[in-house]
Every structure is written in C-alpha cells, then in structure tokens.
Write a structure and sequence with these properties.
Chain lengths: 281, 281
Amino acid sequence: MNTVTNVSECRQAITAARKSGKSIGFVPTMGGLHEGHASLIRRSRDAGDFVVVSIFVNPTQFGAGEDFSRYPRPIENDAALCRSSGCSLLFNPEVSEIYPPGDETRVRPGRLADGMCGPFRPGHFEGVCTVVARLFNIVQPDTAYFGQKDAQQAVIIRRMVADLRFPTRIEVCPIVREPDGLAMSTRNAYLSPEQRKQAASLYRGLRTGQELIQRGERNAGKVVFAIRAVLDDAGPSHIDYIAVVDPETLAEQDEISPPVMIALAVRLEGARLIDNLIVTK
Amino acid sequence: MNTVTNVSECRQAITAARKSGKSIGFVPTMGGLHEGHASLIRRSRDAGDFVVVSIFVNPTQFGAGEDFSRYPRPIENDAALCRSSGCSLLFNPEVSEIYPPGDETRVRPGRLADGMCGPFRPGHFEGVCTVVARLFNIVQPDTAYFGQKDAQQAVIIRRMVADLRFPTRIEVCPIVREPDGLAMSTRNAYLSPEQRKQAASLYRGLRTGQELIQRGERNAGKVVFAIRAVLDDAGPSHIDYIAVVDPETLAEQDEISPPVMIALAVRLEGARLIDNLIVTK
C-alpha cells in the first residue's frame, strides 16, 4: 500500500494502475475507520479493483458548533486497517489540496437534502456533494463504495452522479453492526459506557418498527410512536427525527407501502447517531 | 466527423480516440456557430487534439423572459462549420441526456458570479457551471477551449475547474470581431440593420476607454463616463453596466491599476450584447 498526500501524486499512481488494466475502486472516508469501512475496502478488493481509500475530514460538511475539531483522526490505526483490508493507495490530503486558495465553487443537492438530516445539519449535504465531486475528479473511480448507514447521503450521491454525469458506478454496502445491534460509527467513540449501552436502543427501535410493519401496520404515525417508546424507555435522549420514507425518493410515507426505510437520528449527550433499516414487506 | 446524440455513444467514441493516443480537445457551444467558435475548433485541431464540439442550448442558463426558445438552432450550418474547422466528433444531445429525469443537482459558483452580468441574469452562471461540469464529466477533455468574449464565464469556469479539481486545462481564446469591431456573437442575428450599425459603438466605446487609460487616466468613473458618451451618441440603448475590473478577480477598480479589463453589457431592442477589452498598460 502506498500513501500519498497531494493530488498530482494521487493522479499519477492511479493513472499507472489504470494503464496496467486495473479497474479503480474508491472508498472515500473521513478516517476514524472501523469494520464498516473495512467492509467497503474488502468489497472493492474482492471486486479486483485497485483500491483507493481517501481519509479526509471534510470541513465543509460540518456545521457551526459541530464536531469538526474533535472528530477522531487516528491516522496510524487507520493506515493499518486500510493495509490489512486490501487498500492499494491511501490518499490523505491536507485541506488546501481539496480546497485551494480562493476556492468558492460548491455542488448543491436538491430536494433530497431537504428532509431527514437536512434541516438539522444546514449545508451538510452541500459539503458532502462538494467534497465527493472533487474526490471523484481526482480519483476518477470506476466504482465508488458507500455505506448504507448514511442512507440519505447514499441517495444524494447516487443522484449527484446521475445528474452530473460522472462515469462512476455507486455501490452501497450493508450496515455493519456491533453484537448488540448498534451501527458502527466513528462517532460511537464519543459515547460514555452508559450512553453506549443506551445507544443499542436505536436498533431495537428500528426492529420494533420493522416487526410492526411486517405484521401489517400501515400507519406510519403508529410505527414512529412505537419506536419513540423504545428510545424513551432506554433513557434520556433528543430525537431529531424518526421517519418512514421511500428508500429511493426519501419521501415521507404516512400510509406505509413497502419497501420502506425507517430512519432515525438521535442525540445522546455529545454524540449524534443515525441508523436505518429497510423493510421490504 | 462523426455526430452522436447520446452520452454513451459520445463516451465510446472518445474512449476509442484516447486509446489511440490522442489528446481530447473540447469546445462546448450552444450552436449558432460563427467565426469565433470556428477559431476555437481550429485552435484545438492545430494542437493535435481529437476535437469534440458540443452543441447544446442549455436551458438552465437562461432566465425567465430570456431568449431560450428563440435562440438560433441552425444545426445543418453548424455541422458544416464544425466539419470544415476540424471537428472530430459533434455531440448534439437532447435536453434529457444532460438533465436526466429527476435531476436536481447544481454547481454553484461563488462571488465571481456576483458582479458584472450576475445581477442582470440571476442563476445564469449556476446554469453555466452546471452544464459545463456535466459536459466535462462526459467528454473528460484534456483541454477545453472558451472564448474571451464571455470573459466572466471564462473566469468562473477556470475557478470551477481549479476548485472541483477537474483534470482539464482551460484555454481562453481571443475575441473574433467583425470588420467594424463588433464582437462575433450568435445573438448578433437578432439585430435589425439599424441596430447592427449601432452595435459597433460597443467596441468604439471600449477603444475610447482603452485610449484614456493608456494616456494615463486612472479614474475609473471618468473612463466609464467617456464610454457611456460613445454609446449614447450611437443611439438609444439600455446599458446594464460598464465596468473596469481586475481581469482575474473581476473586482471593480475605482483607481485603475493596469492590467484591467473594461467590460460592458448593453441591451438594444431584443438583443443583449456583451464585450470587453483588456488594457495592459
């Protein structure tokens, strides 16, 4: 595995790989890597790609008062995980490599960014689209791999790639969970032992909602109410939203018509957690 | 010269050319081609490129009440001009090829779009950036050629390419003028014979400003006043702006410090014309 920190070195290494006939796989990350990231890297490796992983804590996707400065940056552990998972090239740029002096161009998503996490994180998805577009132009991947945990992000990125005509295929990989069901997330590191225990209620809530829908419940309000009860029962938290949406359009469903996605965002003290589950019938 | 109308055919033809070792040159146009466009195509041909010309009247860069529907679309003449100028591949897509169903992603320029034509054409430069980004992702040119006549557009595109990390070099080519100095423009076709005569005053005004600056005038207000007098003398028109700006930042200069760009936008009945001149000393 090679590590590069600037755009021209990154392009050179990828051009050489492409000339040798390799497909280019890309896993963009903000570091703080865990098994979820590892599953994306392995997926790309198993597809036979030359696997490029970027580690870049993207300032434009953090709002004022969010956790940009304290976001974990354990670069040595991250590099080791990349290496052991099959990464070919680690791209770890400074901010000025991605946002050059005088920078002002942004990629703006549309209505897909209006719901779910959008209102709670103004500008977040514009920051995500802006950095992913830049990274795609640097890496020019044949396939890019994203995690289903960030479900709204995945839908918005798919839309951006279709709209802006990127020659890149998007593959969204399943959520990797801890034994108690908590979705792997870099931000889980923020949790105290007590909060960590409480956090398992997100998945229990989703499963409760899933069971209700599978047993025939079609009233989204009732499903949300039941999930809220599970979360409340686990301890104090601030629920940003619990939503039942179309998995492709992200439109909220009042009358449930599977397949649907149940998605939620919950703030425990110091950590905002998201999770989701797709219910197919 | 081949002509293609869809994205996948376009990509195939370009991939084949690239594999044969050719650099890819790209001249994005809205058709209604004239000698200005021909100079860009010839420039790319002379550089040894596989020359891709797109003809696409981009709806998102026209405002409400602007001339989208009546914009000239003389495709047969355009194709002939492309062929004779050295175009290798003409890409002439339908709107749905560039704006797929459900499209909503936009590329947003920053403050460079705030001055000059920006306030008079809300959303125009966002439309330009959005279509150019899409076309760049389809064509993936090594070099793209733009005309200096659209000076603000050229600066914004350069900025976008640097910011979004497109692997494309931008080359801006000189304005091509009619014998009386009028800058070539598709929209000149809108002018009546009388207006056509009056339109030569734009270049006369720019030259007047240039002479003043070259003789030592450093007060931008006085230069603008003199240009305005030349325009007014030629007949009734509506002047959107006359500005003396930094050629790279587009910042207005009150106290002139060459090199500067004198730029103006003037509406004669039914046609909005722009022109500019860079004064180097």
